[in-house]
Every structure is written in structure tokens, then in C-alpha cells.
Specification:
The protein is an alpha+beta fold and about 200 residues long. It has 2 helices and 13 strands, in the order H-E-E-E-E-E-E-E-E-E-E-H-E-E-E. Strands 2, 3, 6, 7, 8, 11, 12 and 13 form an 8-stranded mixed sheet that branches. Strands 1, 4, 5, 9 and 10 form a 5-stranded mixed sheet that branches. A hairpin with a 6-residue loop joins strand 11 and strand 12. The two termini are about 15 Å apart.
Length: about 200
């Protein structure tokens, strides 16, 4: 295959992945809005998602500056041979309109996978949110703020571990701060997303 054709193929793959990402987010937002009211989806349809790196130095339970509690978080890994992103959808019980947040996505690379709700070998990622810029009235309930996280290193690492264990599927979940302690200095309760899975053979096609 010529270099020119390879470049065209890469561009097409990038476009296809972003179209899939947009479709997933828009369907989720429409479905949720129909039952739970208005949702915020920063960047979901009109601009690229904010992108973050995955941090492999996990944070402890001490509260961060301007840390925000989450009410939920779902995710999916979108990938081809040359494209790997984790789409994460932080959800808030309420936020102010036009509030700007920043996020930290981390994982303990030395963790041992756990059995969770009957699913074995589940890895855990952690999502933290901080308010970067104050919003304005009115308050929005059940607000979502989708982001993209670089997933290439994660994919390669978990593919190696699960292949060595004789597995063809990787399972993971995302934990997030649900409540603070009495003086808001530590995370008292963690919430957990549903288990997400991806095949470690799909990207070889």
C-alpha cells in the first residue's frame, strides 16, 4: 500500500471514530433528556470534546481544591488500529449554567483485577472533577459533561495482562466521588459505573 493510500485510510478511520462518538453521545443525551429533563453535554454536538491524559499515579481520598461530587459516570473505549480514546460522561446532580470544569482520570497500573457482581478480572479507573470557572443561574439538574481520555497506553497494558491470563475481553469500571466527609476534606463514599468491556482482538482486523 502506498504512503498516500495509508494516509487516506488513517484520515477515514479518524472521521469514522468521531462520527461513532458523536452518535453515541447524542443518542444517550436524547434518551436521558426525554425522561430526566434538560442535560448539559459540553462539546457533544457542536465542538470537539476536551481531551485529557490518563494518569497512572492514583490519587488518594483527600479532597482536591474545588472538587465536585459526581452522581454518575459511564464510559466506552473507541478504537481502531490507530485510534484509541476513552469517552467518559461525568454526570452531576446539579451544576450552574456555563460552569467550566476540569477532570483527572487515573488508574493504579499495579492493581490486581477484582471480581465485581459476578464478572471476573475487572479493572478500576478513577474520575475526579474540579470546578475551574463559576457558572450562572439557572441551575441545571442531571447535567452531563462528556470528555475524551487518551486510551492507547491503557489498551496496550490491559491487552497484555488479559492476553497473558488467557482472556479475550477486558472489563473495567470507573469510580467517582459520591459524598464528602463531614468537613469536606476527604471522599467518604465512592460511586461506581457499570462495567464496560472491550475485545482485545477487535483492533487487529
Amino acid at each position: 500500500m502506498s504512503l498516500q493510500l495509508q494516509m487516506i485510510r488513517l484520515i477515514v478511520l479518524e472521521i469514522v471514530c468521531w462520527l461513532i462518538l458523536r452518535s453515541i453521545l447524542i443518542r444517550r443525551i436524547i434518551a436521558n433528556a426525554s425522561t430526566n429533563g434538560f442535560y448539559v453535554a459540553t462539546g457533544a454536538a457542536s465542538s470537539p470534546l476536551a481531551e485529557y491524559d490518563l494518569n497512572y499515579s492514583p490519587l488518594d481520598s483527600m479532597a482536591l481544591d474545588n472538587e465536585l461530587l459526581l452522581s454518575g459516570s459511564e464510559s466506552a473505549l473507541l478504537f481502531s488500529n490507530n485510534y484509541k480514546k476513552i469517552v467518559v460522561i461525568p454526570t452531576f446532580a446539579s451544576v450552574l449554567t456555563d460552569q467550566k470544569n476540569t477532570y483527572i482520570m487515573s488508574m493504579d497500573s499495579n492493581q490486581e483485577p477484582e471480581t465485581v457482581d459476578g464478572t471476573d478480572r475487572v479493572y478500576t479507573l478513577c474520575l475526579r472533577a474540579q470546578k475551574r470557572e463559576e457558572g450562572k443561574a439557572p441551575t441545571i439538574s442531571n447535567a452531563m459533561d462528556p470528555i475524551a481520555v487518551e486510551g492507547g497506553t491503557l489498551y496496550s497494558m490491559l491487552k497484555g495482562k488479559e492476553s497473558a491470563a488467557g482472556k479475550k475481553i477486558v472489563s473495567y469500571r470507573v469510580k467517582y466521588p459520591l459524598t464528602f466527609n463531614a468537613d469536606s476534606t476527604k471522599i467518604a463514599t465512592w460511586g461506581y459505573s457499570k462495567i464496560s468491556q472491550f475485545s482485545i482482538e477487535e483492533a487487529t482486523n
